[in-house]
Each structure stands twice: as structure tokens, then as C-alpha cells.
Amino acid sequence: MVKPIELKNVRKVFSHPMKVWTKIESVKDLSFSMEQGEIIGFVGHNGAGKTTTIKMIMGFIRPTSGEISVFGKKPGDREVKSKIGFLPERPYFYSELTAMEVLKYFGKLSGLSGRILADKAENVLKKVGLFDDRNRKLASYSKGMLQRIGLAQAIIHDPELVIMDEPMSGLDPIGRKEVKDIIRGLKRDGKSVIFSSHILSDIENLSDRVLIIEHGKLKSFGSLHEIIRPEDVRYTIEFSCDKSMKDAVFALFDGVRIVSDRFVLDCADISDFNSKLAEVVAKGYTVLNAAGSYPSLEEIVFKEIREEENGQR
Amino acid sequence: MDSVKRIANVSFYTFLEMVRSKVLYILLFFALFIFALGIGITQMTIGNVQDIISDIGLGTIEIFSTVLSIFLGISLVHKELSLKTLHPLLARPIARPEYILGKFFGMVLLIVVEIFVMCIIFAILLTVFGGFSRFFGYMPAVYTIFLQTCTVISVAVLCSTLTEPAVAAMLTISFYLIGATSYNLVYAITSRTSDFVKNVVTTLRYVLPDFSHFNIKDNLVYGRGLEGLSLGFASVYALLIIVIVLSLAVMFFNNKEIS
Predict the structure, then answer these.
(1) pLDDT tens across A166-210, in order?
(2) What residues in B contact A58, CB-CB < 8 Å?
(3) Which of A271, B103, B167, B226 is deepest in the core (most CB within 10 A)?
């Protein structure tokens, strides 16, 4: 089956805007592919190369080297574009047009017309919560409303692949929830979605796979569980015992601490966890909780950035 | 056929966006002001009032059309690039040449409407001063003003794809000034210089735009007829400039990185 997006060793080098002889490598040897029907969350700090990568996938800019294919064809191909919905970062639309006019404009360019276009425009406006404001000029729209109309134009033609650059930016919590619901709805309908966001909890909640990019290089790509390294999992044992045994417990386990009348024991890795758990049980202490806890995406990303800065990876 | 539809769509919404622009109404106000000034001048000038009104009327239509096409044309593409309204548009199944042609025809549509409105005002003025019978005789002049303006729009579109509005304005105004003066300049230079310079300048005349092919309004106002000026030639000449300039615009825009 043709993959919605496939990148092989993609590089993008820009000339410095002030010093043309100075080159800036925005994307470095980036390779990844997307499966049909999945949601990929694209993470990286400002200037990491997310938007540049998205623009190359859209065919707005050309890679310096490497290959990009979208539905097996080159980006920018007319047939390919008819299958894509695109929401740019901080979308801005024609301020003198109304929301309905903008949707009809984009809908017509995607080959829709007549009653079908009118129905789709109304439905999508209802979906993004702008139906009551459909005849207002976009000049009077707030940033969040522009974000919503951006989302509406991206999905009006029922695309197979939706590419969104910071779709949650500028939205209030209710708006963010609505957008998340729309993204989940797209997945339910079998659509593929790739979106970038600074809001890591949103990426964590929505994505099947997460793509972390740092200084233009791919740092990690996979499901949250795949990108968590074994050493990142924190294993802890919580147990209780008679107060008279407190000194014995402290003598037995290095680094044990007391939290709310419980002993909490942090373990270095899974084997340390198993051996300590066996010891706790052998001593007859009451095990209250023993589990490995996974770091959040935020913790993973911060760790990646710290390691990148320290030159560890 | 689909391509024509896409171009027509871009044209229509470009027109709709611009026709609601405040800049248009500010310029229209100035045009009305110039008409009013013209009426004032007729009271202070010796000569045929209808000639003066006709001269001012056609002159205002030409100047206003040119100013409008430069002011709005120079930012046609650049504005979309800087505001990034271009990105969701080019994400659609539309080719870049279709977009450029759509923008051009959208602007042309605006000029058609503008010239139509100005002609109505001009006709009213002529009627007030008892010269309405002359009005339809001026239509060839209005047509050549339209042709000339279309060439200016094409240059504005080209410049808008290449550079920012301030530089685009300078380049487009330069094109207009060269076009408006090249005939007289070439005549002045060739009448008093060496054969070599004469040859160079004469060759340049065929390269530089020459709006004398469109300048028939004086002939019509003062009853001299077309005097060898051909509407057919003017049409072909304008078409040639537009095709060359828009081809360049398409070529540049096709290779442009939309960042």
C-alpha cells in the first residue's frame, strides 16, 4: 500500500538572508514514513525544522537533497494535492471575505461545487463552531476563530491526509478540545494526520507515533512506548511494616525514603527492581505498590534536548 | 476546462477581496476630486468647454486606472506571500501559473469595473455640459486606456512575484514612465545625433514599451480621428507585452521557494 508520506535522507540548506555565502542547514538527513490512518505528532523546539519539513512535504520548497514522496508521487503533484488538507501555522485569510466565501473559494479550487459545496461548507462550519459567524468578514475574527476557519478549509474537501502546523495554537481550552476531537474524528474516518505542536500533552494524547526533531535531525520516532528507553522507566516499590522495624529497613535498603507513612524505594532498573521486590517480600513487609512508571512526553523531550546540548547523543 | 475554472475562481475572489478594499474607495474619492477640479478649470479657461471636459475626463480615467493598477497590483502576490494566505491556496490542486493568471485577471476585472464607473461619471459630466453626443466616440480611447492599463497590471504582477511592494512600485512606475515617454524621447534623440546612436536608439525603441500606440485620446477629443493609429495593432501590441511579461512572472514564480 502506498504510504501517505515518505522521506528518505532529506536535507534542506538555506542561504543566510543577510550573508548569502553562509549556509544554514535546517533539515539534516531526515528519514521517516507514515502509515495510512495513523496520527503522527511532530515535536521540536522553535527552529528545529518542523515547519521546513512540512513545507517540503507540501511542495512549497524543494529539498536540497533526498527524496520526498506523498502518496507515491512528488510533492506538489495536482493529484496528490487533491488528497491533502493543509493548515498552516498562524493562518491568515482574506480579511475582506467572509468565512463562507473563503470556504467556497477553497472548496471550488478542490473541485467541489453547487449543493455539495454549500452543504460541506455548512457542515464544516458547524464542526469548528463558526456557523453563526459565517457571514462575518474575517477582518473581525479573533486569532482563535482564524485558527478554526483554517482548520475548516483544511478538511472541507474530505482529504485523505491532513497536515497541520500548530493546529492548537491560539485556541482556548474548549477550542483545543474541539480540535482534538476533530483530529480523533479524522482518524476514525481512516484519514492520516500529521501535526506539529508545542503542547506536548496534546501530542501525547492524540498521536499514534511521535516524531522528535532537534536542530533538523531526527532524534526519535515511534510510539511513546517505543521512544522511551529502558533506562528512562522509573521503577518504585512502596511498602509498609511495623514502626519498630524502621531502622532495619533503612539499614537494608540504600536510598529508601518515607512518604506519607510509607517506605518508597527507587530502583535503578528492572533487575534491581526484581531483586529488591524479592527482598521486601522475603522480609515479610507489606507491598503496597510495585510498578514501573513511564516518563511523560514532556520529560522525554526535555531529556533529549538536555542531552543534545550536552553532546551526549 | 478545469484550468479555466480554477483561473476564474482565483480571479473572482481576487476581485471580491480588492473591490472591498478601503484603498479603492480612497482612490475613487481622488478621482472624483480631479473631475470636480476639472469642472472648476472650465470656468477659468478659454476654449471649448466640452473639449476641456473630455480631455480631463479621459485623462482622469487613464491616470486613475494606472494608479489603481500600480497601487493594488504591486502587492497582489507579495501580500499573499507575506501574510501566508498563499500557502493554503497553493496546497489546493492549482498550478502556480493558474494562480498568477487568476491574480492578473482578477485585477483586470477590477479595472473593467472601475473604468465602467468612471465612464458613467464622465458621461454625466458631458451631459451636464451639453456634449453627451461625443461620449460614444471616445470609446476607442477608453479601450486603448484599458489595454495600456492591462500592460501595467502585468508588470505589477511580475514585480509582485519578484520583490517587495516598495521596489515593485518603483519598477512598475518606471515601466509606465518609459512607456509614456519613449516615443518622444526616441524622436528627440534621433533628430540630433550621429548615425550610430540613432541606430542604437531606434533598436531600443522596439525593445522598450511604447504607449504612443495607445494614445488616441487627444486625436479623438480634438476631432483628428485615429490618424493612422490602429486599434487592432494596439490590441496585438498590448497582448504581446502581456504574454511576455506574464510568461516571465510564471517562470519566476514556478521556481520560487514559498517559505
Answers:
(1) 898 878 888 888 889 999 999 999 999 999 987 778 888 899 999
(2) 87, 90-91
(3) B103
Determine, for residues B258 and A55 on separate chains, whether the beta-carbon distance falls below 8 Å.
yes
Whether residues B91 and A90 touch (CB distance < 8 A) is answered with no
Residue B216 covered by a domain = yes
Q: In what order do the strands lie in the sheet with A286-293?
A: A257-259, A262-267, A234-240, A286-293
Chain B partners of A61 at a C-beta cutoff of 8 Å? 257-259
Give pTM, 2 decimals: 0.84
Which residue from A minimizes the CA distance to B13?
A105
Number of domains in chain A: 2
**Is B149:B69 a contact under the CB 8 Å cutoff?**
yes
Same domain, A25 and A113: yes
Answer with the one of A174, A200, A227 that is the final residue of a domain. Answer: A227
Distance from the B40 Cα atom to the nearest Cα atom in chain A, whole angstroms: 36
Cβ neighbours of B17 in A, within 8 Å = 94, 96-97
> A144 with A254, same domain?
no
> What is the extent of the structural domain holding A239?
234-293
Asked, for residue B75, whether it belongs to a domain, the answer is: yes
Q: Using a CB-CB distance cutoff of 8 angstroms, which residues of chain B are in contact with residue A93?
A: 85, 88
- Position of cell 497536515? A163
CA–CA distance, A106 with B9 (Å, rounded to integer):
9
**Contact call for B259 and A55, based on CB within 8 A:** yes
| Domain count for chain B | 1
Helix H segments across chain B?
A: 2-19, 22-44, 49-73, 76-83, 86-90, 96-128, 139-162, 165-190, 195-207, 217-221, 231-255
Domain assignment of residue B212, yes or no: yes
Distance, CA of A5 to CA of A54 (rounded, Å): 11
| Residue A176 CB-density burial (10 A; 0-12 exposed, 13-18 middle, 19+ buried) | buried
Statement to judge: residues A179 and A284 lie in one domain: no
Contacts of A111 in chain B (CB under 8 A): 2, 93
**Which chain B residue has its CA at the smallest distance from A95's CA?**
B17
Q: What is the pLDDT, as a whole number, of residue A230?
A: 72
Q: Which residues of B touch A (CB under 8 A)?
A: 2, 5-6, 9-10, 13, 16-18, 20-21, 83-85, 87-95, 257-259
Closest CA to A272 of A289, A257, A253: A253
DSSP bridge pairs for A237: A265, A290
Domain boundary among A210, A227, A244: A227
- ipTM tops 0.95: no
Summarised one tens digit per residue, pLDDT across range B1-33 is 689 999 999 999 999 999 888 777 877 787 788
Burial class (CB in 10 A: 0-12, 13-18, 19+), A298: middle
- A96:B17 CB<8 A: yes
Nearest to A239 by CA among A227, A256, A223: A256
Whose CA is closest to A136, among A154, A127, A148, A151? A148
On whether the CB atoms of residues A36 and A83 are closer than 8 A, the answer is no
